[in-house]
Automatic annotation (TrEMBL):
Keyword Transmembrane helix: yes
Chief location: membrane
Organism: Shinella curvata
Spans through the membrane: 76-94, 106-126, 132-152, 164-184, 209-227, 248-273, 293-312, 324-341
Official protein name in the record: Iron ABC transporter permease
Keyword set, alphabetical order: Cell membrane, Membrane, Transmembrane, Transmembrane helix, Transport
């Protein structure tokens, strides 16, 4: 019996070890892909820049047009890197908290809640401070998340994935209508608000990026530390509670991390949709459902996708540009339809 036990346990250990090795290889490959997109983001644009100009710009030189272009692209690249990672991670957190395959900061109305709060602050209270933008967006994102979850919890069966998706979609439409109603009579702010509403990373500066970093870093830390709790929640509330997990606290802490990420990103970039839906699904196909692997993969995958979307938006419309919010929507909408068909509505 001892020999049999040893013989049956060894393959399991080997399979787990092999799986972790495979995930590590995928992770290394993702880092290489991220480095490639960072390089393309710095060098590709309306003007092609040589590597010598890139190196000179990194050294602080701005005495040629090429070097000046690179100097402008570096903060843009950093913003796309951080915002993409934040949205990818927030999407994975929301899918884990709600156990909803359709969860996404855009679909659940969280981004639009942050957007509405910022628009109200600008139009009615003359808000102009960067920190005011950030705090207002975070509060708006949190209120929208609570509102959607409360609406989705009404009725028989509680907060089912389908009810949450429908409540989030309805909330997003309602908030978008309110934004239009607020901005329409305000011609003095309409242009800037409409441009910001599309969602993009163009025009990024260090002055815009630095104030939001503490909020995003806190969101990253809280979210990544919630991985084990999300694994427990995936087993179901009753089983998670039986394992000693405080279900309400686990959900609240993980949600706080996602809200910080969504609110901070929306304040700087505007609402960027579908990225938080696409990335976790693709990463789940690669690394499985273990959130200890899924969360970092989603963050890196989100950064890669947003950088790639930004580079693509610069190429396809030269000498003009297409904002990343439009590119991610064009990618995400068909993916959303595929998920709905794959999951089947009655199973959600």
């Amino acid at each position: 019996m001892t020999a049999a036990t040893l013989n049956t346990s060894k393959p399991r250990w080997s399979a787990a070890s092999g799986s972790n090795r495979t995930r590590s290889l995928w992770l290394a490959g993702l880092f290489v892909l991220l480095a490639l997109f960072v390089f393309l983001s710095v060098t590709v644009g309306t003007r092609d820049v040589a590597w010598a100009d890139v190196a000179a710009a990194l050294g602080g030189a701005q005495d040629t047009i090429g070097r000046a272009a690179v100097a402008l692209r570096i903060p843009r690249t950093l913003l796309a890197l951080i915002a993409g990672g934040a949205l990818g991670l927030a999407g994975a957190i929301m899918q884990g908290v709600t156990r909803n395959p359709l969860a996404d900061p855009g679909i659940l109305g969280v981004n639009m809640g942050a957007s509405l709060a910022v628009v109200v602050g600008v139009a009615w209270f003359g808000m102009s401070s960067v920190y005011a933008y950030i705090w207002t967006a975070i509060v708006g994102a949190g209120c929208a998340a609570i509102f959607v979850y409360a609406i989705g919890s009404l009725g028989r069966g509680g907060a089912t994935p389908l009810k949450l998706a429908l409540a989030g979609a309805a909330t997003s439409v309602a908030f978008a209508s309110l934004v239009i109603a607020i901005v329409l009579p305000r011609g003095d702010i309409a242009g800037g608000i409409h441009s910001w509403q599309i969602g993009g990373v163009g025009g990024a500066t260090y002055e815009r990026l630095v104030p939001v970093l503490p909020f995003l870093l806190a969101g990253f830390a809280i979210s990544l530390l919630s991985a084990r709790k999300l694994n427990s929640l995936a087993l179901g509330d009753e089983l998670a509670a039986g394992l000693g997990e405080n279900v309400a606290v686990a959900r609240a802490v993980a949600s706080l991390g996602a809200i910080l990420l969504c609110g901070g990103t929306t304040a700087v970039c505007g609402p960027i949709v579908f990225l938080g839906l696409v990335v976790p699904h693709v990463c789940r196909l690669v690394v499985g459902v273990d959130h200890r692997w899924l969360l970092p993969f989603s963050a890196l995958g989100g950064a890669c996708l947003l950088l790639a979307a930004d580079v693509l938006g610069r190429i396809v419309a030269r000498p003009a540009e297409i904002d990343v919010g439009i590119v991610t929507a064009l990618i995400g909408a068909p993916f959303f339809i595929w998920i709905v068909r794959r999951q089947r509505v009655r199973d959600l």
